[in-house]
Amino acid sequence: MRLRTRLHDEDGAATAEYAIATMAAVAFAGLLVVIMQSDEVRDLLENIIRTALTLDE
After folding, report:
1. Burial of residue 54, with CB atoms counted within 10 A of its CB: 0-12 exposed, 13-18 middle, 19 or more buried
2. Handedness of CA 38, 41, 43, 49 (dihedral sign)
């Protein structure tokens, strides 16, 4: 009976899930930082923003 209780005990499962999700978010943010440091990506984004803000008449 104790073994069955231990196998079905999920105390702390939500905390572990939050920890894993947080680590994944930090890893993704780190990847974005590395990508954004690329000159090509920075130039591409600047051109997109400049085009979006330019008023053509």
Report:
1. exposed
2. negative
SS3 7: helix
What is the token pair recorded at 27? Answer: 């890893």
Task: Tell me the average confidence (pLDDT) per consecutive run of 10 residues in the chain, 57 residues long.
Answer: 61 80 96 89 91 81
Domain extent at residue 12: 2-53
Report the C-alpha gap between 5 and 10 in whole angstroms. Answer: 10
Element (H, E) at 49: helix 39-53
Number of domains in the chain: 1
